[in-house]
Structures are given as structure tokens and as C-alpha cells.
Amino acid sequence: MTQPVLETVRAPGPLYREVADRIARLIEGGAFRVGGRVPSVRALRRSQRVSLATALQAYRVLEDRGLIEARPQSGFYVRLPPGRLPLEPEESQPPVRARPVALGDLVARFQQAARDPACVGLGTALVHPGLLPIRALHRTLAAVGRHSPQLANSYDVAPGSLALRVQIARRAFASGCTLAPEDLIVTNGCQEALQLCLRAVARAGDTIGIESPTYFGLLQSLETLGLRACQLPTRAREGLCLEGLEARLDRCRIKAVLLMPNFGNPLGACLPDAKKQKLVRLLAARGVPLIEDDIYGELAFAPARPYTAKAYDRDGLVLLCSSFSKTLAPGYRIGWVAPGRYRHQVTRLKYLSSIGTASVLQLAVADFLAHGGFDHHLRRLRRACAEQVARTTDAVACHFPAGTKVTRPAGGYILWVQLPPHVDAVALFERAWAERISIAPGPLFAADGGFRNYLRLNCGLPWSDQVERAIARLGQLTAKRL
Ligand SMILES: Cc1ncc(COP(=O)(O)O)c(C=O)c1O
User: What's the 403 CA to ligand 1 centre distance in angstroms?
Assistant: First the structure.
């Protein structure tokens, strides 16, 4: 069939709008699918015999209508119309009473599935290695080993490499913190940093305030240390509900609070900076320390990253923890903590726990931060995460049953999905694993087996037919009565 030539068969109205209307009709009719690419600007220009400016303007109109989106260096893609985006999960309402943590063997089972190389990895919160500068980092590591072979024969005891702490202090400036290298201690990943902080501020039997839902690694730390959890209510967009915290501070004897204010796991929520300031004041007024996990803070989709709560700390009561596991190389196990007034305790505990952190790895990361183009890499990673989160959201909206709700994170690469009430996410996890798809079921993220009909999806994999098929299959399984 020949296309009408728009320059000759013209209806009234600007030409770019006519072109836009025709593409909109194709999108509405399903000829261009959600998540798929529309013709490039040049292809549109050729096929419709219009100027480049007209083709571009037509796409701008469609962008304004929310029908397509531009993806840097990739083209224009069909978006889910704004009205069809799923709702966000409801505010969590955990019980007010503190309780011991009992995760059972679900974590071990989840990790088995997550490590299964045959699975499409929607379970573990990890980005695809192709999105990390692994080769360049390994080259740096080899050079460090060649130039300083003596490093293999020494202990780099806590607080760790000065060169690395200088780089971390520089980077922390963008998160609103003024830290000196001596304020920092290098750790084996963020997990060790969090454990050391918990041990510095609390004893077995004490109660720690945590977000509900929260990362299962934190729950495991509480369980191992014999700490009780006071679960705090959260909202999908902003995370911690400050009123909920205030009410519990008055009723439970909370010894410390452990939060992920920037794109936390699994909510991906971001507490506005003004509320972080309020939070820090609220806790400082009661002398309650705040352990802050900022592991996803550098992965904001906006050009500037949000501040940390630590930026507002005037009393040394915020213990800021992070690592390079989400941005550079989880296998290097390089993390850090700025423990404020608990510096001596945390340094001592770090020494007792593991003496120090592998020196060659510390120096390789320090060198990469100084000369390896880390910011350039981060910009690319953040763009990729934003795109993968958008496409996964659209795919969930297309393939999951009515009533499914999804978070809309502004950073990081995980989605928290609320399924219809009849769905048992643990049964879904087992069924999906049998079909070689790994997911993280909701009860992993609660101290008490809650979030039965929720799951966390990893968006760290580049979009592919395989990923889309896996999400479509999860949608079908969810629609069945499991
Ligand atoms: C919120 C959060 N904190 C801490 C960790 C552990 O970090 P690391 O691998 O640096 O020990 C993770 C890992 O997934 C995480 O998601």
C-alpha cells in the first residue's frame, strides 16, 4: 500500500501535528507497541517526505502527550500513556510493637535461586557486568600490584588506605557532607559497615527502628546480633513516614534508627532533603543515633544526587555507610563508614572484625576514582538504570493483572511490586524458579513474614526479549491462583 504524501494531501493544521497524529493512531492501534522503538527521525523524514525539523517537531508533540520518550543515543520509544501507569503501593502499616527478627530459611533459598546461572536474574539487586567498567578497573588493579608488590605482605589496618579515604571525602561533598579523610573507615562492603555501626550503638536485646519494608541483609544483621526490630511505616515515593517514627519513638525504647533515605532497598523511595533535616533534628533531640545506608545515593536519575541525612548532622549522631558495590564492583567488597562520634568504637570493632580491608583492592579503587573516569561511567550507568526501570515498569503494566501496583523510583534499579491480595509471592518465587526466573519475594523484606503479596524486581539487566518474556511470564503466573 502506498503512503499518502503529506506535502500534497494536506488537511488544515501544521504539518508536524498531522505527522504526530498519524503516529499516535498507530500507537493507539497497537502497530507500535509499548516499549518498542518508533522510526528514527531520519527514517520518519524519508517515509513521510517532510523536513528534519518537521519530523523532530512531530516527536516533540508526541513526547508532550506522554506517548513516546527519547532515550539518549538510542532513539524514541513508545511509553505507556500516563493514565495507564499502575498506581503506587500503599503506605505500609507495621505493628507498633518491637519484635525479634525471624527470617527462617527463605534468604538461603532465595540466594540459591539468585545464584542459579540458568535463571533470568530479576531477583538479586545487581547490574549487568556490561554496565560496569570492569576491564578498566582490573587493569588498574594489575598496575597497582605491579608497582607495589609489597602490598601483598602487609596489613592495611583500620581505618584503611589514606588515598582511598581522600577520594571518598571528595565525593561525599556532593552529598552535602564535609568529611575529612580521618572521619572515614574503609570496610568490607556496606554490609560490614552497617554491622559495625549496629555493634557500636546497641547491645543484644535493644530495639532498632527500621523501615518497613527493608533490605533483608539488614534484617539478618539484626537477627544475628539479637536486636529487636521496630518496623516503621513508609510511603512509596518518600520512604520513611516521619509521623510514624515520632509515634514509635515515644512508645518503643528505640536505641538507634537504621534507614536508607536515598533510593532504598526495596522501595527506591527518596526522602526529600528538608525531611532529612527534620529527621536528624528529631533524633538528635532525643539523643538517638541514625545509621544511614546510602549505597544507592549516587544512582539518582536527575543530574544532581540528593543529599544524605549526614549533611545535616551537627552532633556526630549520624553514622553514614556506603560502598562501591552498586556503582563499580560488588566483588571488590570496598565500602566505608563515617561514624561521627562513634569513630573510636567503630575503628576498634573493624580491627577486631577483620583487621583491615585488602590493600591492593583499596588502592585500585582509589586510583580509579582519581583517574578512571568514574563520573563519566556513573552518568552512563544512571541513564541505563533510568531506561531499564522505565521499561520494566511499562512491561509490568502491560503483563500483570489489574490491581498490581508499582513504585516509581527516581534512582537506583529496583522496583517494589504490590500484587493483587490473593497472590502468595513465595509460591510465585518457587514456581518462577522452576521456570528459570529469579525474583525476590516480599516476605524477605519484613521482620515478621509480612508483604506476602509483594515482590522486588531487579532492573539491572539491559532490556532484551529474554527479560521481557520473563516479565510477561511472571505476569501470567501472577494471574493464576497460586
Ligand atoms: C541497601 C543495601 N545495603 C547494603 C547492601 C550490601 O552492600 P555491600 O555489597 O557493599 O556489602 C546492599 C546489597 O544489596 C543493599 O542493597
Answer: 31
